[in-house]
Amino acid sequence: MVQLFDLLPTEERIIVDVLRHIILENLPENCSEKISFNVPFFFGRKGICIIWPSTIPRGGIKQGVLLGFWYGRDLKDEDHYLTQGTNKQVFYRIFKTADEIDDKPIVKLLKEAVKRDKQWKKELKK
Question: Residue 60 gets which letter from DSSP?
C-alpha cells in the first residue's frame, strides 16, 4: 500500500485513504483487500468494489479517484449515487476532492454489494 501512496499526488492520496477507511470499516470479516495493478480491490466471494486513482494507468479516468462497484448494475442505488458509464457491469462515482465524499450513500451501497456478494455461494450450488 505504501508504494501506491508514493505514486499519488496529495489530493488523490487523501481521497483513496478516506474511501479505503469507509470501505474497510464497513466490510464484513470474510471480505478482504488486495492490491492489484497498484489499486485497492475489495473482495468477498467475488469482487465487491475498487478504488482507482486517475494517476494509475488503465483506469479510464483523467482526473480524481474512481470508486467502482463490480456488480453495480444489480445494486439498489436509491440515491442515484453511481454512474453507469460505458461499462455494463461496473457502476462508479468519481471524486475530485475529499470534501465530495459522503459516507452515507457509500455505506448503503457497500451493504447492498455485500448482500449481493453473499448470493454467489447459493448460485454456485445450483
Answer: S
Euclidean distance between CA atoms 2 and 71, whole angstroms: 28
pLDDT < 70: residue spans in the chain: 1-5, 121-126
Angle at 18 between CA 17 and CA 20, to 5 degrees: 65
Distance of CA 63 to the CA centre of its chain: 16
The model's pTM is 0.89
Whether residue 68 contacts residue 84, with contact meaning beta carbons closer than 8 Å, is answered with no
SS3 57: coil
Residue of 65, 76, 67 whose CA lies nearest to 48: 67
